[in-house]
Amino acid sequence: MVGGALQIAGLLVGGIGMIGTFAVTGMPQWRVSAFIENNIIVFETIWEGLWMHCIRQANIRMQCKVYDSMLALSTDLQASRGLMCAGSVLSFLAFMVAIIGMKCTRCAQSNRQAKGCIILTAGLLFILSGVIELIPVCWVANTIISDFYNPVVNVAQKRELGEALYLGWVAAFCLIAAGAIFCCFCRCCEETRSYGYSAPTLYPTLSQHLHRKTESSYSKSQYV
Hints:
The protein has 224 residues and is of the alpha+beta class. It has a domain at 1-27 and 74-192: Butyryl-CoA Dehydrogenase, subunit A, domain 3 (Up-down Bundle). 66% of the residues lie in helices and 10% in strands. It contains five helices and five strands, in the order αββββααβαα. The protein has a five-stranded antiparallel β-sheet. The radius of gyration is 29 Å and the shape is elongated. The relative contact order is 0.16. Belongs to the claudin family. It is a multi-pass membrane protein. Claudins function as major constituents of the tight junction complexes that regulate the permeability of epithelia.
């Protein structure tokens, strides 16, 4: 009962992380315009994402345009595209593998060892997808912070951390947490299985010892 609840909790946390990864990949709020010093154009907000940049004017309308060329992007955004796509695919694959390895599913239900291997694979995939997602999010955040405090960079070109980065950290944490839950569940199952296998071996040894002792006592009495 506890194992099934633990699996469901890991699946829910992993599903939240997977959906968050998809959302972060498509959101344009990776870089947000910073209103500092002489930049007083506060009615216009600029968003820069992995696939497009948007301009939002006074919370009334928003215009977005897809990047004309990938080569025009900075190095961190170019690498973030591939890493986020890889993280999205791995998180979806981990989610599907976790569903197959659940106790409530009928696939490979007769083989518990196969179920444990499937769950362990899902946990490792969740952890890998979370780590892959952390790389671009932290990279872009580091670039934004470095440019913000760099006096050489023009004030109009400075950006702040967008909502997508915060959501990316939360999604990566959920993926890693889901992977840890599945790995711990698989470890606990292995320990329980080992205890279950080792315990019965003690009883035949004890019974054989008692049987030999009684036989020896009977032989001595008969001898007398």
